[in-house]
Structures are given as C-alpha cells and as structure tokens.
Design a protein that fits this description.
The protein has 10 helices and 7 strands. The chain is of the alpha/beta class and 248 residues long.
C-alpha cells in the first residue's frame, strides 16, 4: 500500500471514518452473494501492487480459498521499497516487506501460495504498464479467477496493476478496492456500487486476516521523521470487517 509522499493526493487527506461506513445499511446488504458467485473456483491468482494490498483487500477470501485447497498464486508486482522514502534503504525495506508478506500468508493459513515477485519499481508502474501486462499474461492463464487492485482506486500503482490485469486476459477478473475506503463515502457516485459483490467472512477468516495485517509492522508502526505509519488505525479499521467487497 505504498504511497509517494511527494505527491499531493486524495489519499493523503482526512478520510471517511469506518463508523460512517458501518452506519450505511446498503453496505451490509449488497446485492448478490460473492461466495455464491465464486462457487466452484479451484484456482486463483492474486495481483498485488505492493506487499499488504492483497491482505487488506482480499485476505479473508485468500484464507477461504486456501482452506478449500484451491491452487493459489500471488503476483507481487513491486516490493514496496519506497514507502519510507529517504528514511530507509530501498533494498532493506524490500527485504523486510517480503518477509512480512511471507508471515502474513502463514497467518492466513495460505503458506502454500506460490509467490511470483516481478520487482517492478514501487511508485513507478504507470511507466511500465505494457511490460506489466506482458508479464501477467502467462501468469494468469489457466486460472479460474484473477483478483486485482481496483483500476480506479486513485493510487497510480493500484490503477496500473488493475488495468494490466484486465489487459492480460484472465478467464474471470474481480477487482478489490483498497484506498477507496479512505477517500470515498457511502453512495459515492465515483464508485460502481452496481457492480459490487459482498464476500461474507466467517469468524475464523476474520481472525486470520486481522492477524495477517499485524504482520506488516513496517506499515503499521510509526516511520519516524514525522511521517507516521502508512496504515494508521483509522485506515486499518476498514479492513477488519466481517466482509470484503469486490467489483465485477
């Protein structure tokens, strides 16, 4: 979930409080049941622009798919090496975030997931979209389902990863939002609510996801130098619900 601190962006503004989302009745009664829509899935590839995107967006679903013994592949597009720009060496941060991902997958019960690291530049995917598309094409082939960052998430890396996943031609593609929960608001017209699916999570999957989020200490702890954490408690609150949302 890395951000380029030098860029003024809506995700840097005060966001929508989770209590506001929780008070919106429509969110808990989204049309369609995501689990029914995904019934019969035996293989899935998850595209993540940065380490932790996949856990925040679809960690619960990953846990459920792993428990069902589905074949799973995680494509880590970047290693998130620029989330502490100027205050940690990119190589050291990449190693740390890679280790955090491995720990998070174990927490989800998904340690058998095949992880493919493309090592494209964090905060630089917009310039590499064609390259990313070409890399993803063979990686999403022969999978029932592809899960990718929403291509209108208002984060350049997320949007590029989402577009590239679509262009790669998977059999079925669903988007997961991340920063949307911060900058959007209930009934926000910028969000395609008519294409949303609700994935209800049983208590065990919720607990696993919460444990997995805590593995990303580089993002949840204060970075120092006045930067604060990338994932403040108010942001994390959006991802500890008993449901996840996908867009068709």
């Amino acid at each position: 979930m890395s951000r380029n601190a030098a860029t003024v962006h809506p995700i840097d503004a005060p966001g929508t409080d989770e209590r506001t989302w929780a008070a919106w009745p429509w969110l808990s009664t989204l049309p369609g049941n995501g689990l029914a829509a995904l019934a019969g899935v035996t293989s899935a590839v998850v595209v993540a622009a940065h380490p932790d995107d996949e856990v925040l967006g679809v960690g619960g679903l990953i846990s459920l798919l792993a428990a069902s013994r589905a074949r799973l592949r995680l494509v880590a597009v970047t290693d998130g090496e620029r989330s502490h720009r100027g205050h940690a060496t990119p190589a050291a941060l990449a190693r740390r975030r890679t280790a955090e991902t491995a720990a998070a997958l174990r927490a989800l019960g998904a340690q058998a997931v095949e992880v493919v690291r493309l090592q494209l530049p964090d905060s630089g995917l917009a310039r590499r979209e064609d390259e990313l598309t070409a890399a993803l094409a063979p990686l999403v082939a022969d999978f029932d389902l592809c899960l990718a960052p929403w291509d209108h998430d208002l984060h350049p890396d997320h949007e590029t990863a989402g577009r590239a996943a679509r262009r790669a031609g998977p059999a079925a593609l669903y988007y997961y939002p991340v920063w949307m929960w911060h900058w959007a608001a209930p009934a926000d017209p910028r969000v395609p609510w008519n294409r949303a699916l609700r994935i209800p999570l049983p208590p065990r999957a919720v607990a696993r996801k919460r444990a997995a989020i805590t593995c990303f200490a580089s993002q949840t702890q204060d970075r120092g130098h006045g930067l604060g954490p990338v994932l403040a408690p108010a942001v994390i609150a959006h991802f500890t619900r008993s449901m996840e949302v996908l867009f068709r």
